[in-house]
UniProtKB/TrEMBL annotation, chain A:
This is EKC/KEOPS complex subunit BUD32. Component of the EKC/KEOPS complex that is required for the formation of a threonylcarbamoyl group on adenosine at position 37 (t(6)A37) in tRNAs that read codons beginning with adenine. The complex is probably involved in the transfer of the threonylcarbamoyl moiety of threonylcarbamoyl-AMP (TC-AMP) to the N6 group of A37. BUD32 has ATPase activity in the context of the EKC/KEOPS complex and likely plays a supporting role to the catalytic subunit KAE1. The EKC/KEOPS complex also promotes both telomere uncapping and telomere elongation. Component of the EKC/KEOPS complex composed of at least BUD32, CGI121, GON7, KAE1 and PCC1; the whole complex dimerizes. GO terms for cellular component: cytosol; EKC/KEOPS complex; nucleus. The keyword Membrane does not apply. Residues 1-12 have a biased composition (Polar residues). Residues 1-30 are annotated as: Disordered. GO terms for molecular function: ATP binding; protein serine/threonine kinase activity. Belongs to the protein kinase superfamily. BUD32 family. PROSITE patterns: PROTEIN_KINASE_DOM (PS50011), PROTEIN_KINASE_TYR (PS00109). Gene3D superfamilies: Phosphorylase Kinase, domain 1, Transferase(Phosphotransferase) domain 1. It catalyses: L-threonyl-[protein] + ATP = O-phospho-L-threonyl-[protein] + ADP + H(+); L-seryl-[protein] + ATP = O-phospho-L-seryl-[protein] + ADP + H(+). Residues 34-331 form the Protein kinase domain.
UniProtKB/TrEMBL annotation, chain B:
The keyword Repeat does not apply. GO terms for biological process: tRNA threonylcarbamoyladenosine modification. It is found in: Cytoplasm; Nucleus. Residues 35-317 form the Gcp-like domain. PANTHER family: TRNA N6-ADENOSINE THREONYLCARBAMOYLTRANSFERASE. It comes from Lophiotrema nucula. It comes from the Eukaryota. This is N(6)-L-threonylcarbamoyladenine synthase. Substrate binds at Y135, V136, S137, G138, G139, D167, G182, E186, N283.
Length: 331, 352
């Protein structure tokens, strides 16, 4: 309670030195490998790597939850185990029920890793961004209000549709994509799972698998032969890199929708949780661009038709929107 | 420019005098006085009694603060007071005092958001540029980041505030309220070593503490001396669980929850600086945990000492003066207070 010069009180605020970020320190058991890791993201909870499974040409995702030094070791073990198992169980359940989600290839809750199937393709967010980029440009100049931009966008879209057949296809493709998203989310909810973090970044548009181009030169090991060799613990034979046709930077809207990142998923059939899932997705859409709201209507339409309780969830969604848990309540 | 700040949103009344010499020099604290209303063990502070306490102390503290600051009344540029959020009666009594001296001295008023006061004071003390802010106190639990002229709330408690949880936990175990329950819980926790399972509730960037209180009620019954040895709660090694162990478990659990949501917000925003403000921010264990987390992310954790993180008048003066310098004042008619005043309602005109 004394007179203090504030500059002199900053002593406890010196930034400490920075160690490198945590890497999985242990080696993974066969047939998993930590040899050629490529960091995809560092989330709050897990480090996500790309690595390979069985053969050097089969990519997979390694999700590693490093021990949190700030947490009590017992608590840390408990949480890591519970979350890793919950995620794996939800994925297995979805898979069993026929949903498109990454397959679980392996995991260990003691050391905190989970290996998942690699999903090729683009995120729905990337698809939407591209769409906004493509059709949003002509609406930019001189327009300020959101409504105007929106109207202009729609008109622009219509114009383009009239002009080019290609854009007509793009539009139909987008609508098809939205329908797939709506049905996928509906199916997920129907089997009693809520995603918990349903954003456009967690929805992938998986491009159809490309046929392998037959390699030239000497006869080579087929992928299945390599897998067998790896399973039986033999030294993998020398691999001649499989000439895969590189997935072109394609604008194709073909493929199926795959949901990823079930780290926050819960097994629940509460309308509230389902409605919040949709609300989060809606926010992700509108954050991309005001005009994406129209597209989201199509998602909701398909969702509403997807399972028996879906209509009541949509009603609940209206409540969730109005409520906005974080609204001020004066009076 | 000199500002006087009046704070009284909870059981502490604080009067501070601050000077901003010029825009590129650090602010100078001229006076920072505080008096706390302490309720007996097993009880919380009631709004009515707290207001009486504040009314009894406000004149004395203002006189002392002005004297200690060595400033003349004519040197004061603006009077800042807490507009909210907080308890109604204490807020009203302090707002009344602010209006009175504003009329007496003929100085403009600025109503300040209590949370923004904490954030700005923390930034000024630690020189953290653009941190994710964890604001933890008796009435608030929020993870905040700055974006486009607002302090935006990324995560918060879904039910009670963390300080409230600690206070009520202490009350259940009959831990004294002097100097404040959180401090005593911290001292008990330093002597605890067995971790007892408590509900750990994190949903995305939000947390919930009410389950912990329900658990505390049950646990308190199982560690009392009135219970036969066979029924006492024991650790895996067979040691009797003590109050100290419960305090230790409480801290480990709820602080881990806080650090987790803060980390999630940092990953979301993409920053590596974190600043802890508010009364609970004076807890050394929380500061340590936050520092460890920030270091793992290649950044740093910032915290202030109890002079500035426990409610005080200086932070109100500081934030109010920042706002005053952008040309904002509160007219006498508008100099009300409100129990609910969200952090993101304030237009932050003084930051880029």
């Amino acid at each position: 309670m004394s007179t203090t010069n504030m500059a002199s009180t900053a002593s406890d605020a010196q930034p400490p030195t920075t160690p490198p970020p945590t890497q999985p320190l242990h080696a993974l058991p066969q047939p998993f490998t930590t040899s050629n890791l490529e960091v995809l993201t560092q989330g709050a909870e897990a480090l996500v790597y790309k690595t390979t499974f069985l053969t050097p040409s089969t990519p997979c995702v390694l999700k590693y939850r490093p021990p949190k030094l700030y947490r009590h070791p017992i608590l840390d073990k408990r949480l890591t185990k519970a979350r890793l198992l919950a995620e794996a169980r939800v994925l297995v359940k979805c898979r069993r029920e026929g949903l498109s989600v990454p397959a679980v290839l392996g995991g260990d809750w003691e050391s905190g890793w989970l290996v998942l199937e690699w999903i090729g393709g683009r995120t729905v967010r990337a698809v939407l961004d591209e769409w906004v980029h493509k059709f949003g440009l002509r609406a930019r100049d001189g327009k300020t209000s959101e409504e105007e931009v929106k109207r202009e966008l729609d008109e622009g879209l219509m114009e383009v549709v009239a002009e080019e057949k290609e854009s007509q296809e793009a539009r139909e493709g987008l609508m098809r994509l939205m329908q797939m998203v709506g049905r996928a989310v509906g199916k997920l909810h129907e089997i009693g799972v809520c995603h918990g973090d349903l954003t456009t970044s967690n929805l992938m548009l998986r491009t159809p698998e490309r046929k392998e181009v037959v390699g030239r030169g000497p006869p080579r090991m087929t992928v299945s032969a390599q897998r067998e060799a790896a399973m039986s613990g033999q030294d993998p034979p020398e691999v001649i890199p499989v000439q895969q046709e590189e997935t072109k930077e394609t604008n194709s809207l073909e493929g199926d929708v795959v949901m990823i990142d079930f780290g926050l998923a819960t097994q629940t059939i509460h309308e509230e949780d389902r409605a919040v899932d949709l609300y989060v997705l809606e926010r992700a859409f509108t954050a991309t661009h005001p005009a994406a709201e129209h597209l989201f209507q199509e998602v909701l339409r398909c969702y509403g038709e997807s399972f028996k309780g879906a209509k009541t969830v949509l009603k609940r969604l209206a409540d969730v929107r109005l409520r906005g848990r974080k609204r001020t309540m004066i009076g | 420019m000199i500002a006087i700040g009046l704070e009284g949103s909870a059981n502490k009344i604080g009067i501070g005098v601050i000077s901003h010499p010029s825009s590129n020099k650090p602010p100078i604290v001229l006076a920072n006085l505080r008096h706390t209303f302490i309720s007996p063990p097993g009880e919380g502070f009631l709004p009515k009694d707290t207001a009486i306490h504040h009314r009894a102390w406000v004149v004395r503290l203002i006189k002392q603060a002005v004297q200690q600051a060595g400033a003349k009344v004519s040197d004061v540029d603006v009077i800042c007071y807490t507009k909210g959020p907080g308890m109604g009666p204490p807020l009203q009594s302090v707002a009344l005092a602010a209006r009175t001296i504003s009329l007496l001295w003929n100085k403009p008023l600025v109503g300040v958001n209590h949370c923004v006061g904490h954030i700005e004071m923390g930034r000024a003390i630690t020189h953290a540029q653009n941190p994710v802010v964890l604001y933890v106190s008796g009435g608030n639990t929020q993870v905040i980041a700055y974006s486009q002229q607002r302090y935006r709330i990324f995560g918060e408690t879904m039910d009670i505030a963390i300080g409230n949880c600690i206070d009520r936990f202490a009350r259940t175990l009959m831990i004294p309220n002097d100097p404040f329950p959180g401090y005593n819980v911290e001292q008990y926790a330093k002597r605890g070593k067995n971790l007892v399972d408590l509900p750990y509730t994190v949903k995305g960037m939000d947390v919930s503490f009410s389950g912990i209180l329900a658990a505390a009620d049950l646990l308190a019954g199982q560690i009392s001396d009135d219970v036969s040895y066979g029924k006492r709660l024991k650790s895996e090694e067979g040691d009797l669980i003590t109050k100290e162990d419960l305090c230790f478990s409480l801290q480990e659990t709820i602080f881990a929850m806080l650090v987790e949501i803060t980390e999630r917000a940092m990953a979301h925003v993409g920053t590596s600086q974190v600043l802890v403000v508010g009364g609970v921010g004076s807890n050394e264990r929380l500061q340590d945990m936050m520092g460890l987390m920030a270091r793992d992310r290649g950044g740093s954790g910032f915290a202030t000492d109890e002079r500035f993180c426990i409610d005080n008048g200086i932070m109100i003066a500081h934030a109010g003066l920042l706002e005053y310098q952008t040309g904002v004042t509160t007219s006498l008619e508008d100099s009300t207070c409100t129990q609910r005043f969200r952090t993101d309602e304030v237009f932050v005109g003084w930051r880029d």
